[in-house]
Amino acid sequence: MRIGMTMPVMEPDLDAEILRSWATTIDSGPFSSLCWGERIAFDNPECLTFLGAAAAWTERVRLVMTVVVPQLHDPVMLAKSLATGDQLSGGRLTVGLGIGGRHEDYEAVGADPSTQTMRQLAERAQLLRRVWGGEKLTESVLPVGPAPHQRGGPEIHVGTTGPKTIRSAAGWADGVAGVTLDLDTTKQAELFDIARDSWADAGRPAPHLATSFWFALGSGDAPRAQVTRHLHHYMNWIPSEFVDAIAPTTGWAGTEKELEEVLGRFADIGTDEVQLIPTSSDIDQLHRAADVAAAFG
Protein backbone atom coordinates (compact mmCIF):
# COMPACT_ATOMS: atom_id res chain seq x y z
CA MET A 1 0.00 0.00 0.00
CA ARG A 2 1.24 3.48 -0.88
CA ILE A 3 0.88 6.60 1.29
CA GLY A 4 0.09 9.95 -0.30
CA MET A 5 0.09 13.36 1.34
CA THR A 6 -2.42 16.14 0.80
CA MET A 7 -1.19 19.71 0.68
CA PRO A 8 -2.48 21.97 3.50
CA VAL A 9 -4.37 24.10 0.96
CA MET A 10 -7.45 24.44 3.18
CA GLU A 11 -5.48 25.91 6.09
CA PRO A 12 -5.53 29.67 6.80
CA ASP A 13 -2.62 32.09 6.34
CA LEU A 14 -0.83 30.23 3.56
CA ASP A 15 1.85 31.74 1.35
CA ALA A 16 4.08 30.55 -1.47
CA GLU A 17 6.95 29.69 0.88
CA ILE A 18 4.79 27.35 2.99
CA LEU A 19 3.32 25.65 -0.06
CA ARG A 20 6.68 25.26 -1.78
CA SER A 21 8.27 23.82 1.37
CA TRP A 22 5.51 21.24 1.70
CA ALA A 23 5.68 20.33 -1.99
CA THR A 24 9.44 19.85 -2.09
CA THR A 25 9.42 17.89 1.18
CA ILE A 26 6.67 15.58 -0.11
CA ASP A 27 8.61 15.13 -3.35
CA SER A 28 11.73 14.08 -1.43
CA GLY A 29 9.87 10.97 -0.25
CA PRO A 30 8.67 8.56 0.90
CA PHE A 31 5.18 9.68 -0.17
CA SER A 32 3.69 8.28 -3.37
CA SER A 33 1.57 11.29 -4.25
CA LEU A 34 1.08 15.00 -3.61
CA CYS A 35 -2.64 15.69 -3.40
CA TRP A 36 -5.02 18.64 -3.35
CA GLY A 37 -8.65 19.34 -4.17
CA GLU A 38 -10.95 22.05 -5.41
CA ARG A 39 -13.14 24.48 -3.60
CA ILE A 40 -14.33 27.83 -4.96
CA ALA A 41 -16.11 29.82 -2.23
CA PHE A 42 -13.23 29.46 0.22
CA ASP A 43 -9.83 31.04 0.89
CA ASN A 44 -7.71 28.38 -0.81
CA PRO A 45 -5.45 28.27 -3.90
CA GLU A 46 -7.19 27.81 -7.25
CA CYS A 47 -6.62 24.17 -8.16
CA LEU A 48 -5.47 24.50 -11.78
CA THR A 49 -3.08 27.36 -11.06
CA PHE A 50 -1.67 25.27 -8.23
CA LEU A 51 -1.19 22.36 -10.65
CA GLY A 52 1.33 24.45 -12.60
CA ALA A 53 3.21 25.34 -9.43
CA ALA A 54 3.24 21.75 -8.19
CA ALA A 55 4.57 20.54 -11.54
CA ALA A 56 7.41 23.09 -11.31
CA TRP A 57 8.23 22.45 -7.65
CA THR A 58 8.43 18.64 -7.91
CA GLU A 59 10.19 16.02 -10.01
CA ARG A 60 9.23 12.58 -8.68
CA VAL A 61 5.96 12.43 -6.83
CA ARG A 62 2.62 11.77 -8.53
CA LEU A 63 0.32 14.81 -8.62
CA VAL A 64 -3.21 13.86 -7.61
CA MET A 65 -6.06 16.33 -7.92
CA THR A 66 -8.35 14.45 -5.58
CA VAL A 67 -11.52 16.35 -6.52
CA VAL A 68 -12.13 18.63 -9.48
CA VAL A 69 -15.74 19.55 -10.23
CA PRO A 70 -15.91 19.81 -14.05
CA GLN A 71 -19.38 21.41 -13.95
CA LEU A 72 -17.68 24.50 -12.49
CA HIS A 73 -15.45 24.89 -15.58
CA ASP A 74 -15.72 25.20 -19.31
CA PRO A 75 -15.07 21.52 -20.13
CA VAL A 76 -12.79 22.13 -23.12
CA MET A 77 -10.67 24.67 -21.24
CA LEU A 78 -10.52 22.23 -18.32
CA ALA A 79 -9.26 19.51 -20.65
CA LYS A 80 -6.63 21.89 -22.06
CA SER A 81 -5.49 22.97 -18.58
CA LEU A 82 -5.19 19.41 -17.34
CA ALA A 83 -3.33 18.30 -20.46
CA THR A 84 -0.92 21.20 -19.95
CA GLY A 85 -0.37 20.15 -16.34
CA ASP A 86 0.26 16.57 -17.42
CA GLN A 87 2.75 17.77 -20.02
CA LEU A 88 4.57 20.06 -17.59
CA SER A 89 4.83 17.32 -14.97
CA GLY A 90 6.10 14.70 -17.39
CA GLY A 91 2.97 12.56 -17.12
CA ARG A 92 2.63 12.53 -13.33
CA LEU A 93 -0.98 13.73 -13.15
CA THR A 94 -4.04 11.85 -11.84
CA VAL A 95 -7.42 13.60 -11.83
CA GLY A 96 -10.28 12.91 -9.44
CA LEU A 97 -13.68 14.10 -10.64
CA GLY A 98 -16.69 14.72 -8.43
CA ILE A 99 -19.98 16.61 -8.43
CA GLY A 100 -19.06 18.65 -5.35
CA GLY A 101 -20.95 18.92 -2.10
CA ARG A 102 -21.67 22.65 -1.94
CA HIS A 103 -24.18 24.62 -4.00
CA GLU A 104 -22.31 27.81 -3.09
CA ASP A 105 -19.42 26.81 -5.34
CA TYR A 106 -21.83 26.48 -8.28
CA GLU A 107 -23.42 29.82 -7.44
CA ALA A 108 -20.07 31.56 -7.09
CA VAL A 109 -19.08 30.83 -10.70
CA GLY A 110 -22.58 31.03 -12.17
CA ALA A 111 -22.76 27.29 -12.88
CA ASP A 112 -26.13 25.58 -13.27
CA PRO A 113 -26.95 23.67 -10.04
CA SER A 114 -29.08 21.25 -12.06
CA THR A 115 -25.86 19.87 -13.57
CA GLN A 116 -24.75 18.60 -10.14
CA THR A 117 -25.50 15.01 -11.18
CA MET A 118 -23.53 11.86 -11.94
CA ARG A 119 -24.91 11.84 -15.49
CA GLN A 120 -23.48 15.28 -16.14
CA LEU A 121 -20.20 14.24 -14.53
CA ALA A 122 -19.94 11.22 -16.82
CA GLU A 123 -20.59 13.37 -19.91
CA ARG A 124 -17.83 15.77 -18.94
CA ALA A 125 -15.41 12.94 -18.20
CA GLN A 126 -16.06 11.58 -21.68
CA LEU A 127 -15.45 15.01 -23.20
CA LEU A 128 -12.10 15.25 -21.42
CA ARG A 129 -11.12 11.93 -22.96
CA ARG A 130 -12.18 13.09 -26.43
CA VAL A 131 -10.04 16.23 -26.19
CA TRP A 132 -7.07 14.31 -24.78
CA GLY A 133 -7.43 11.77 -27.58
CA GLY A 134 -6.95 14.51 -30.20
CA GLU A 135 -10.52 14.51 -31.48
CA LYS A 136 -11.59 17.67 -33.27
CA LEU A 137 -14.67 19.12 -31.62
CA THR A 138 -15.22 21.72 -34.36
CA GLU A 139 -14.09 22.38 -37.93
CA SER A 140 -10.92 24.00 -36.62
CA VAL A 141 -7.62 23.40 -38.38
CA LEU A 142 -6.17 21.64 -35.36
CA PRO A 143 -7.69 19.88 -32.35
CA VAL A 144 -7.44 21.41 -28.87
CA GLY A 145 -3.93 20.86 -27.57
CA PRO A 146 -1.48 20.26 -26.10
CA ALA A 147 -1.56 16.52 -26.12
CA PRO A 148 -1.13 15.15 -22.60
CA HIS A 149 2.14 13.42 -21.80
CA GLN A 150 0.25 10.25 -20.85
CA ARG A 151 -1.27 8.68 -23.94
CA GLY A 152 -5.03 9.17 -23.78
CA GLY A 153 -4.65 11.51 -20.84
CA PRO A 154 -4.29 11.18 -17.06
CA GLU A 155 -6.07 8.50 -15.09
CA ILE A 156 -9.50 9.65 -13.94
CA HIS A 157 -10.75 8.64 -10.50
CA VAL A 158 -14.24 9.26 -9.17
CA GLY A 159 -14.46 11.22 -5.95
CA THR A 160 -17.10 9.49 -3.88
CA THR A 161 -18.14 8.00 -0.55
CA GLY A 162 -21.22 6.05 -1.64
CA PRO A 163 -21.99 2.78 -3.46
CA LYS A 164 -24.44 4.33 -5.96
CA THR A 165 -21.82 6.74 -7.23
CA ILE A 166 -19.21 4.00 -7.43
CA ARG A 167 -21.49 1.80 -9.55
CA SER A 168 -22.39 4.64 -11.90
CA ALA A 169 -18.73 5.50 -12.51
CA ALA A 170 -17.56 2.00 -13.46
CA GLY A 171 -17.98 2.73 -17.16
CA TRP A 172 -15.67 5.75 -17.30
CA ALA A 173 -13.44 6.03 -14.21
CA ASP A 174 -10.11 4.29 -13.66
CA GLY A 175 -10.41 4.22 -9.89
CA VAL A 176 -12.04 5.44 -6.72
CA ALA A 177 -10.87 8.45 -4.67
CA GLY A 178 -12.78 8.15 -1.42
CA VAL A 179 -12.69 9.74 2.00
CA THR A 180 -13.50 8.15 5.33
CA LEU A 181 -14.63 10.25 8.26
CA ASP A 182 -14.68 7.55 10.94
CA LEU A 183 -11.93 5.25 9.58
CA ASP A 184 -14.28 2.25 9.60
CA THR A 185 -12.32 -0.28 7.56
CA THR A 186 -15.26 -2.70 7.44
CA LYS A 187 -17.40 -0.15 5.62
CA GLN A 188 -14.45 0.82 3.45
CA ALA A 189 -13.86 -2.81 2.48
CA GLU A 190 -17.52 -3.12 1.45
CA LEU A 191 -17.20 -0.08 -0.83
CA PHE A 192 -14.01 -1.46 -2.35
CA ASP A 193 -15.75 -4.78 -3.04
CA ILE A 194 -18.57 -2.91 -4.77
CA ALA A 195 -15.99 -1.10 -6.91
CA ARG A 196 -14.19 -4.30 -7.84
CA ASP A 197 -17.45 -6.01 -8.79
CA SER A 198 -18.76 -2.98 -10.72
CA TRP A 199 -15.59 -2.60 -12.74
CA ALA A 200 -15.55 -6.33 -13.50
CA ASP A 201 -19.20 -6.25 -14.59
CA ALA A 202 -18.35 -3.35 -16.92
CA GLY A 203 -15.47 -5.32 -18.43
CA ARG A 204 -12.94 -2.83 -17.09
CA PRO A 205 -9.52 -3.44 -15.53
CA ALA A 206 -9.47 -3.56 -11.74
CA PRO A 207 -9.91 -0.04 -10.30
CA HIS A 208 -7.34 1.89 -8.31
CA LEU A 209 -8.70 1.98 -4.75
CA ALA A 210 -7.78 5.02 -2.68
CA THR A 211 -9.20 6.62 0.41
CA SER A 212 -8.18 9.51 2.63
CA PHE A 213 -8.64 10.87 6.13
CA TRP A 214 -7.71 13.87 8.26
CA PHE A 215 -4.81 13.37 10.66
CA ALA A 216 -2.97 15.08 13.51
CA LEU A 217 0.16 13.70 15.15
CA GLY A 218 1.09 14.27 18.78
CA SER A 219 0.32 13.15 22.31
CA GLY A 220 -2.37 13.94 24.83
CA ASP A 221 -5.34 16.11 23.86
CA ALA A 222 -3.44 18.37 21.44
CA PRO A 223 -3.89 16.28 18.25
CA ARG A 224 -7.67 15.96 18.67
CA ALA A 225 -7.92 19.70 19.39
CA GLN A 226 -5.98 20.32 16.17
CA VAL A 227 -8.41 18.20 14.15
CA THR A 228 -11.36 20.02 15.72
CA ARG A 229 -9.92 23.45 14.86
CA HIS A 230 -9.39 22.35 11.28
CA LEU A 231 -12.91 20.97 10.92
CA HIS A 232 -14.44 24.21 12.19
CA HIS A 233 -12.40 26.14 9.63
CA TYR A 234 -12.97 23.80 6.69
CA MET A 235 -16.62 22.89 7.36
CA ASN A 236 -17.73 26.49 7.45
CA TRP A 237 -21.00 25.67 5.68
CA ILE A 238 -22.11 23.39 8.54
CA PRO A 239 -23.55 24.74 11.82
CA SER A 240 -20.87 24.90 14.51
CA GLU A 241 -22.78 22.67 16.90
CA PHE A 242 -22.91 19.90 14.30
CA VAL A 243 -19.14 20.12 13.77
CA ASP A 244 -18.67 19.89 17.53
CA ALA A 245 -20.81 16.74 17.54
CA ILE A 246 -18.78 14.92 14.87
CA ALA A 247 -15.32 16.24 15.75
CA PRO A 248 -14.50 13.64 18.45
CA THR A 249 -14.85 10.76 15.96
CA THR A 250 -13.89 12.39 12.65
CA GLY A 251 -10.40 11.87 11.27
CA TRP A 252 -7.51 10.45 13.25
CA ALA A 253 -5.41 11.88 16.10
CA GLY A 254 -2.58 10.19 18.01
CA THR A 255 1.03 9.05 17.92
CA GLU A 256 3.15 7.75 15.07
CA LYS A 257 2.88 4.16 16.28
CA GLU A 258 -0.91 4.41 16.42
CA LEU A 259 -1.04 5.88 12.91
CA GLU A 260 1.07 3.02 11.59
CA GLU A 261 -1.38 0.55 13.15
CA VAL A 262 -4.36 2.29 11.55
CA LEU A 263 -2.70 2.36 8.13
CA GLY A 264 -1.94 -1.34 8.51
CA ARG A 265 -5.66 -2.03 8.82
CA PHE A 266 -6.29 -0.24 5.52
CA ALA A 267 -3.52 -2.26 3.90
CA ASP A 268 -5.20 -5.44 5.11
CA ILE A 269 -8.40 -4.67 3.14
CA GLY A 270 -6.53 -4.17 -0.13
CA THR A 271 -6.30 -0.38 -0.24
CA ASP A 272 -3.95 0.74 -3.02
CA GLU A 273 -3.26 4.13 -1.49
CA VAL A 274 -4.18 6.13 1.60
CA GLN A 275 -3.91 9.89 1.13
CA LEU A 276 -3.39 11.63 4.45
CA ILE A 277 -5.04 15.05 4.93
CA PRO A 278 -3.19 17.43 7.28
CA THR A 279 -5.04 19.56 9.80
CA SER A 280 -2.19 22.06 10.20
CA SER A 281 0.31 23.74 7.90
CA ASP A 282 3.08 23.07 10.46
CA ILE A 283 5.69 21.20 8.44
CA ASP A 284 6.68 19.20 11.54
CA GLN A 285 3.43 17.26 11.00
CA LEU A 286 4.66 16.39 7.52
CA HIS A 287 8.06 15.20 8.74
CA ARG A 288 6.48 13.04 11.43
CA ALA A 289 4.05 11.52 8.93
CA ALA A 290 6.94 10.79 6.57
CA ASP A 291 8.55 8.60 9.23
CA VAL A 292 5.34 6.55 9.36
CA ALA A 293 4.91 6.41 5.58
CA ALA A 294 8.43 5.02 5.20
CA ALA A 295 7.26 1.79 6.81
CA PHE A 296 4.93 1.20 3.85
CA GLY A 297 7.45 1.91 1.11
From TrEMBL:
SUPFAM superfamilies linked: Bacterial luciferase-like
UniProt cross-references to InterPro entries, sorted A to Z: Luciferase-like_dom, Luciferase-like_sf, SsuD_RutA_monooxygenase
Domain of life: Bacteria
A single GO molecular function term of this UniProt record: alkanesulfonate monooxygenase activity
Keyword Flavoprotein: yes
Alphabetic keyword roster: Flavoprotein, FMN, Monooxygenase, Oxidoreductase
Domain Luciferase-like: start-end pairs: 23-258
Pfam entry (one): Bac_luciferase
GO biological process, one term: alkanesulfonate catabolic process
Position of the signal peptide: none
Name used for this protein in its record: Putative oxidoreductase
UniProt organism field: Gordonia soli NBRC 108243
